[in-house]
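Complex 194.
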Amino acid sequence: MPTDWEANYQRNETPWEKGAPSPGLVDFLRTEPVRGRVLVPGCGFGHDARALAATADEVVGIDIAPSAVKGARAFPNVGGERYEAADLFALPPRLRGCFDWVWEHTCFCAIDPAMREAYVAAVAGALRPGGHLLAVFYLDPGHDHPDEGPPFGVSQAELDAFFSPRFTLLREWLPQKAYPGREGREWMRVLRLS
Ligand SMILES: C[S@@+](CC[C@H](N)C(=O)[O-])C[C@H]1O[C@@H](n2cnc3c(N)ncnc32)[C@H](O)[C@@H]1O
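Predicted structure with S-adenosylmethionine bound:
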């Protein structure tokens, strides 16, 4: 059964909501500030978008759940970030082909695994030519059974298979910082649109 994200937010059932940006992202930004225009798909309450807005010119956080967008907008702006209710798989034309970066964090693992090729196509479609995907992938959420629903784990080999037709892998590493309980379960990558 597809996840009803809006219902989860309305019921306050948001176990992914940590009240702080991804520690791996914060660590990355400390030495490599991200510039230009950034898209954050599945932005939730926008903690990552605000961390990125400290260095980027413009950050657009999108989420399919209007309540997530409302929650993100409730925080004070730190820079050029804004939030929209939008479906990554049906991006409006003004959000296509224009981003220097896409930041991935717990969107890829949240969608139905059958939609992974569509995810790669959507991210590629949002980026300008030569744009980059910076990602922290949730490799191992600690359960594997597909019926258990999101987050859905992924292997590095699967990431290679899904992304290599459209992206060149530039770097990958085990993040040294993670939310409590996610240590050793995540994997970061920088990929360039081929
Ligand atoms: C597991 S939550 C993670 C939220 C946020 N990245 C975080 O870590 O706090 C996944 C988010 O993706 C959003 N989402 C799911 N499918 C989406 C889609 N097709 N387009 C945009 N957002 C989507 C959900 O509403 C939810 O806010």
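The chain has one domain: 19-193.
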